[in-house]
Amino acid sequence: MSGATSAGWYLRRLSRMGPQEVGGRVADTVRRRRWRSGLPDAPGVAGARFTAVLPAGTLAAVPPDAAKRLVAEADRLMDGHAEYFGVVRDDLVAPDWWFDPKTGRRAPSGYAFDVPYRDEEAVGDIKQIWELSRHHHLTVLAAAYAVTGEDRYAERVAEHLRSWWDVNPPLRGVHWTSGIELGVRLLSWVWVRRLLEGWAGASALFESNPVALQQIWHHQRWLAAFPSRGSSANNHVIAEAAGQFAGACAFGWFSESERWRDDALRSLERHLRSNTFDSGINRELASEYHGLVLELGLAALAEADAAEVPVPASVRLVLLRMTDALAAVVDNRLRPPRQGDADDGYGLVVDGAGTDRWSSLLATGDAVFGRLDWWPAVTGTDVRTPLLAALVRRTESAAVRPTRRPDHFADAGLTVLRGPEEIWCRCDGGPHGFLSIAAHAHADALSVEVRHDGVDVLADPGTYCYHGQPEWRQYFRSTLGHNTLQLDGADQSGSGGPFLWTRHARSRVLTAGAADGTADAGVTRWSAEHDGYRGSVHRRRVELTAADRQLLIVDEVQGPRRAAKLAFHLGPAVAAELVGSQAVLSWTVDGEDRSAVLDLPGQLDWQAHRGETDPPLGWYSPGFGRRQPATVLVGTGDVDEGEGFTTVLTFTC
């Protein structure tokens, strides 16, 4: 980031803050300068005991196949192997905690708040560096010890913790720059200590270890001093509060512990509510962050019940609503939408590869809250559910829960149309994003996402990256990068940086579901509009006809004649033969051939693009840091006042 760009970004960022946030950030700056001059020692602790243990018999409830996956993953880690964001590592027997294997760079040392962690040239890919130090691999190793009793797993955990503590003293280096990292790491340490309870060296590693006590105290001191605030109070503040709360409950050995615990619980309760629509959908409108916040909230609830700390009823209510909402929006393969940003972030990991995140969350929701009759069946197993369920006190809720599967979430502007043979269609008519910067939003107003039996047919391309590759960050969050209409080559919302939107398109849903009692049987409808193109309104109507297995999409523009591009991104498994304005689609699922016909608006000139790089076009990101070529069909032409573009997707087999 150049100096000029940096100055411009700061001005744009400042413009999205209110006076209270500006004041808080000024106070943070003063505090950081003061902390540079002196580092207090953690207060002495005598006779500390760890009491937040798992109830007797908990480990016996871990399903054998889940335990087998866990141990296989732990053995890979013991051999030094792992993969983070598409980068394979084989150096984890004794890792360099500041090394980025993607760029080969090593983060600089020095006072934490001087480290330019957004600058990939100076630091490397910060996500690669931070991820290992969330210590999810240590919770996996600790869980492997818990289910097998083999000391080698515990000994490796101890080696890594002592190594990390040695090279990352408080306020030195890149791992002390971001609150979400400290919060998630502190939660991992709580679970490491819990899962190592039967190991002879556990107490010497934690409560009898002055270095560990110093680290735990300084993590909580940092989190208490520098909470995410104002326009940044999104999933980060949830992670900070959950980690602080977990640490204060489980490691409550300090004079400040009760205050830290109470403050963190108040923050968690307030921000869980503010980050969640009443319908249960996460306000960032980024599906993976819904999962992250739900994981963090459930983990915090487990710590509260384990420590017998009363929590406000609103905490359980929000988590209940989030769980029901997740059950409502997933497709038949339990995949949620691919809406908004996704960075493969987890709150608590104790499972091996092959364990489905969303199945695990629904299984935990069943254990904690009880499933409803309309919930999809969960057949997968996991380790985390019996561990959390053993700590959480199951209570009867007075909340009114949906008696049928919701398909429209009015406050979030999210609608799911479902048809025969597992046709699933998500329609986006909601807010641009959360808070004034909408950090994790994409310019995707009125976009659709269509699957058939879990296969992406009209796909949301995903996220791919955050820092270091601005042209790719821009593409994956752009309007052209989604299944919607672009006018005059511009995005619907204005970007001021990789996590900053300075202008937000406003959308509103006009109809959703069967509009009234006279609606055609077997036809579900959705329509919405947005004002993101100044001087014009884009309106879209979608109809799913069950009998014909057909999806109709009609786009209209109210406003002057403008240049238009209409994009339909196909999933990576879908092949397309485009002839004129018709594309024949084909793919295979579970060994069966499937097909569909996509009839495109004849007024536009259609071309297929795949894997282009200058500029990027025709890509799909299956996970953070990974991308693969995928076909996108782009129609180009002019659109006149009130003119309609009609697209028809018909599933043929």
Automatic annotation (TrEMBL):
<protein>
    <submittedName>
        <fullName>Alginate lyase family protein</fullName>
    </submittedName>
</protein>
<dbReference type="Pfam" id="PF07940">
    <property type="entry name" value="Hepar_II_III_C"/>
</dbReference>
<keyword id="KW-0456">Lyase</keyword>
<dbReference type="InterPro" id="IPR012480">
    <property type="entry name" value="Hepar_II_III_C"/>
</dbReference>
<dbReference type="InterPro" id="IPR031680">
    <property type="entry name" value="Hepar_II_III_N"/>
</dbReference>
<dbReference type="Pfam" id="PF16889">
    <property type="entry name" value="Hepar_II_III_N"/>
</dbReference>
<dbReference type="InterPro" id="IPR008929">
    <property type="entry name" value="Chondroitin_lyas"/>
</dbReference>
<feature type="domain" description="Heparinase II/III-like C-terminal">
    <location>
        <begin position="402"/>
        <end position="642"/>
    </location>
</feature>
<keyword id="KW-0574">Periplasm</keyword>
<dbReference type="GO" id="GO:0016829">
    <property type="term" value="F:lyase activity"/>
</dbReference>
<feature type="domain" description="Heparin-sulfate lyase N-terminal">
    <location>
        <begin position="127"/>
        <end position="309"/>
    </location>
</feature>
<keyword id="KW-0732">Signal</keyword>
